[in-house]
Each structure stands twice: as C-alpha cells, then as structure tokens.
Write a structure and sequence with these properties.
Layout (H helix, E strand, L loop, with lengths): L3 E19 L2 E15 L4 E7 L5 H13 L7 H11 L7 H21 L4 H4 L6 E8 L8 H12 L5 E4 L5 H15 L5 E4 L7 H11 L7 E2 L7 H11 L3 E3 L6 H9 L5 E4 L1 H4 L2 H13 L3 E4 L3 H8 L10 E3 L13 E3 L2 E3 L2 E3 L9 E2 L1 H8 L2
Parallel strand pairs: 4-5, 4-11, 5-6, 6-7, 7-8, 8-9, 9-10
Antiparallel strand pairs: 1-2, 2-3, 4-14, 12-15, 13-14
Length: 368
C-alpha cells in the first residue's frame, strides 16, 4: 500500500504592485499556503490554499502532517477524516478546513497521477473546456475609463460574462459603473456583483440593490456574512435579485444547511476552503438536489478540473481573474497559468491537476 512518506509546506507571500481595496480593507500581499506530499511509491502531489495572511502552512506542518505521515496515500477521504478528527475543536472553521483542503488536493493530485489521468478524467468528466466569467472593477480610478477598457479587453478574448465589485463607493457610483458595463457588454451579458460583505444593514442593502435591479443583475454575492442568511432572504424578498454566498463554508454539510433554509440562490463553492475535492462535489450535488446552480471562487486551474464533473455550474461559467490585472497573484507561482481560449478555460490533460508550478518562485516568495 502506498503511504505518505513526506509532507513539505511553503508559505508564499507575493507583493501586490499597489495596495488593493477589498471591501473596506486594503491589502498589500496575496499569500498562498502550499503543501507537497511524497509517497512511498515516489509519487508527488501538490495542494494549496489562499491563506489570506494566516499561517496555514504552519498549521499543516504542526497539527496535520504529524498525524498524516505514514497513513495511506490512496484514500484522501480517510486522511481528511484523520486530520480533522485530530483537530476536532476547530474542524468546521475555515482556516482548519482550508488546511485540510490543501492536503486533500495534494492527495487527489497523487491519485490522478497514479492512474496517469487528469483529475477531471479521474472523476469521469468528458468536457475539454468550460466557459468563464471574468472579475472586473477592482480598481476605482477618478473615472470609469479603466473599467470600460476591462470590458472591451474581455470581449476581445471571447468573454461575455462578468462579475464586478460594488459597495466601495456611493450607490450612485455603483449604478453608473454597472450601466457602463451593460452598455458595452450588451443586454444579455450576465453581470453579477460582489459586495464583499460590506452592505452591513438590510436597509442599506435594499436601497443599494433596488437602484441596480433594473440593470438585470445575475446575483449579488456576499451582501452579508454567511452567518446572516436571514438578511440574505430578506434582501431577495425586498428586491427580487438573487443572493449568492458560500465560499467560506467549511463543509458540504454547511452548504446543505444554507440551501435547505433557502439562504442562497446560487451556492458559492471553493474547493480550497470547503475541505477538498469530495466536499466540493458533495456541495455542488446538494445545490443540484435543491434545484440550484453553484459558482466557483477563482482558483480556475483547480475548479476547471472539478466543475467538469458536474452538471449544475452557474450558467455564466467559472470565476476567472485575468493575470493581466495583478489582483490574484497565483500566476507568479506558475510557469504558465491556465489557457483561456474564446472565453473558455481549457482543461489541462496532464496527470493530476496539471498545475505547472515554478518552484524557484515558490521558494523565493516563501522567504519574504
């Protein structure tokens, strides 16, 4: 039986070219916790998660690696149960679940390599490409010419589905920005809005969203914290605009609960937070059982492999942040990012997740 013989961790801290406003916060770096697992058969799997400045690599090394070492590498689900069981007091919290997700991803990378298949093929997927929607509007300049350029650039690449930032300035500025995107992209282009949990009160949220609803909004993402699902229900009832959240949920069971109580219309799922591959697929399946679609949270290299095995992905496609804009900096850790062709993510056919890591860059940014 193939067993886990070595677990290495890296905490890559990649500086942004300029501070970035995310809701009411400003960030200067993007951080990624990376785990590299080697097995007794000589197979190597890589997983990672978005650590957001938290020491998740240390958590993996100190609290998970000791109990995972020498365990079977052939059952990601069993390893997930072991590491979360050992850390039971925090097992359903996002930081611990994200760490477990990175381990799970590495083990699925190994499982696919063992069969010389991509993860998508291992899961039985048949599709070779998946449509994407591009995230725009992070940078608020003195005018919206930059936003117009982002839309035009996306359209030139065959992308006609969008998600844009809202709530960073006045409601009137939000309306003007969405109108601009609608005018350029056309009446039928899906446009979703990300509020970054900044709308605070129901009254404020209703006022802002009512100003926007005539612009055919696909959904409002994260108007409130995930724990404030009752406010999401009230916002939907008051405005008629679908609400979407879930990227911080730490298990598929949590996703099932928000679906059961009708707190989300489009479930957000992040494989690198929810617990890994099986939990991602279980959450997507739960959404389907409730007649809902689900949307992903960046990490297009990973989510393309998983979404290919599902049938209820949001019609707008996979979420994608273009490296051109230096917002998500994951591409700085890669030799080459995922290929986007005619508005679609082209699935890697390489064994495992097919992520082409630049280990010199990983080590360099882990020393910052």
């Amino acid at each position: 039986m193939d067993r886990i013989s070595k677990i290495e961790t890296f905490e890559a801290r990649v500086p942004l070219p300029a501070p970035l406003a995310v809701g009411s916060a400003k960030i200067t770096h993007r951080t990624y916790s990376i785990v590299k697992i080697t097995t007794t058969d000589g197979l190597v799997g890589i997983g990672y998660c978005y650590s957001r400045g938290l020491p998740i690599a240390k958590l993996i090394a100190d609290a998970m690696a000791p109990v995972a070492l020498n365990q079977t590498a052939e059952s990601p689900k069993e390893i997930r149960e072991i590491v979360l069981g050992f850390n039971w007091q925090s097992a359903e919290h996002g930081t611990v679940s994200a760490a477990a997700s990175a381990i799970d991803m590495a083990l699925y990378d190994i499982a696919a390599k063992r069969q010389n298949k991509s993860v998508a093929a291992l899961l039985g997927a048949k599709v070779a490409e998946i449509p994407i929607y591009t995230v725009i509007g992070y940078h608020y300049g003195p005018d919206d010419s930059g936003l117009a350029d982002e839309v035009e650039y996306a359209l030139s690449k065959g992308i006609n589905s969008f998600k844009m930032v809202m709530g960073a300035e006045s409601p009137e500025r939000d309306v003007a920005r969405v109108k601009l995107v609608r005018e350029i992209a056309g009446a039928n282009a899906p446009i979703a809005l990300d509020a970054f949990r900044t709308l605070k009160t129901l009254e404020n949220a209703v006022n802002r969203v009512n100003l926007l609803r005539e612009l055919n909004i696909a959904f409002i993402e994260d108007p409130f914290l995930e724990s404030e699902g009752l406010l999401a229900i009230a916002l939907r009832e008051a405005t008629g605009v679908p609400a979407s959240f879930g990227e911080s949920l730490a298990s598929a069971k949590m996703a099932e609960q928000v679906l059961h109580y009708k707190q989300t219309d489009i479930l957000r799922v992040d494989a690198l937070v929810i617990g890994g591959v099986d939990q991602f697929l279980a959450a997507a399946s739960a959404a389907g059982n409730y007649g809902k679609t689900y949307a992903t949270h960046i990490h297009t290299e990973v989510h393309s492999q998983l979404a290919a095995a599902t049938s209820n992905l949001y019609a707008g496609g996979l979420e994608y942040l273009d490296p051109k804009y230096e917002i998500d900096l994951f591409h700085h850790l890669l030799i080459a990012p995922i290929n986007i062709l005619d508005g679609k993510a082209v699935l890697s056919k390489e064994p495992g997740f097919g992520i082409n890591w630049d280990w010199d860059a990983v080590i360099k940014f882990s020393k910052i």
